Amino acid sequence: MLFFKDELASVELAPGIGIGFSVSQGWLPLVERPFLILVGLTGVGKSTVTAALSDAGLEFNLLPNRRTLTDRFIIPTIVKMDEKGGNPSCRLSRLYYTRRYKQLFPAGMVHILSQLQIAPLEIHFPLIFDGLRGENEVTYATKMLPLAQFVFLDAPEYVRLQRLLIRNDSFDRVAKSSQAGQHPEVSQSRSFADLGVPEASAFFSDRETAEILERVREGVYSVSAVRDRLKIVVEERRSYDPSATRAALEKLASDRTLVIDTTRYSPELIARKVVQFLHPEA
Question: Superkingdom of this entry's organism (predicted)?
Answer without folding.
Answer: Bacteria
